[in-house]
Design brief:
single chain, six-stranded mixed β-sheet, alpha/beta
Length: 296
């Protein structure tokens, strides 16, 4: 059991690292990549040649006896929701860090970028159920609370139900929101060739701006040849002995992962969800910059 003092130290380390990245690297890129979608009334001015006649303010025009139009400006304030997968697979990582730690750092960078832009940030933690919902708010203390939950929260479930999380957000998010879905995205049915979260994704992506960050470890992709070993499914708890020395077994493992990834990525693309894959030993800064560039 990790002590409260250790948790606070980890939160502080993440804040120091990610707050600096947000200020120096991402502030401008975040601002241009994620723009407000609403339009608010700004002023009324006299009609000029070329103005859209649909913007004419007929009340002011009647009073002044000359055509006037309404002028609108883009609402810059955004609402960000960090939807983070806290299923059993988050505890896997064979290189630099666990998926759990990678998710916490990426979420912190995004949250501090939003804070710098004056936006609200909320968080949804999910496994095979909705574990925790933190409504969107502003402020450093609120973001530190989110990071702390990402590090210390102990979920009740171990499985993954991305669809359930998306359905919850459909009801909970009333205002247009930028949703960052942070998960390994392995909630798919390979035999049916279908992502289990497809229908909820279709609905959420039609109402909100959904961005997917697919986390993975190099050992998700392929098995090492280390002979017979016992393997455990971190989500179902099922344990099985596997002969990793068998080329056929390794090929089957690799093929299953590739098919799962293909289904997940294809589903995201189908509903125009911007996505980037980040490995536990990757420089996630480069991945986020790539994501921001593709949204311009």
């Amino acid at each position: 059991m990790v002590s409260q003092s250790e948790i606070l130290k980890k939160v502080r380390r993440i804040e120091i690292r990610t707050r600096g990245l947000s200020s120096e690297i991402f502030a401008g890129k975040y601002h241009s990549a994620f723009k407000g979608r609403g339009m608010s009334f700004s002023e009324v001015r006299e009609y000029r040649a070329g103005d859209d006649v649909r913007d004419i303010d007929w009340n002011v025009t009647a009073r002044s006896r000359s055509p006037h139009i309404k002028v609108y400006e883009e609402e810059r304030e955004l609402t960000m929701m960090l939807a983070v997968d806290v299923s059993g697979s988050r505890m896997f990582g064979t290189r630099t860090m666990l998926k759990k730690e990678l998710a916490a750092e990426i979420a912190a960078v995004l949250a501090f970028s939003a804070e710098k832009n004056g936006d609200k940030v909320g968080c949804l933690l999910f496994s095979d159920r909705v574990e925790l919902f933190i409504p969107p708010k502003k402020g450093r203390n609120h973001i530190l609370h989110i990071i702390r939950q990402l590090l210390e929260f102990e979920p009740s479930g171990s499985g993954t139900d991305i669809g359930g999380a998306l359905r919850f957000m459909t009801g909970a998010l009333k205002k247009h929101t930028t949703v960052f879905l942070i998960s390994d995205m392995m909630d798919v049915d390979v035999s049916a060739g279908k992502a289990r979260f497809e229908e909820p994704l279709k609905i959420v992506s039609s109402r909100h701006d959904v961005v997917a960050l697919r986390l993975y470890d190099r050992r998700d992709e392929s098995l090492p040849d280390v002979g017979v070993m016992e393997m455990a499914d971190s989500e179902s708890g099922r344990r099985v002995w596997v002969d990793t020395g068998s080329a056929a077994v390794r090929r089957a493992y690799d093929s299953h992962y590739k098919k799962s990834s293909f289904i997940a990525e294809g589903t995201l693309m189908r509903y125009k969800v911007d996505t980037v894959a980040v490995a536990t030993d990757d420089d996630y800064v480069k991945s986020l910059i790539l994501l921001f560039k593709q949204r311009r």
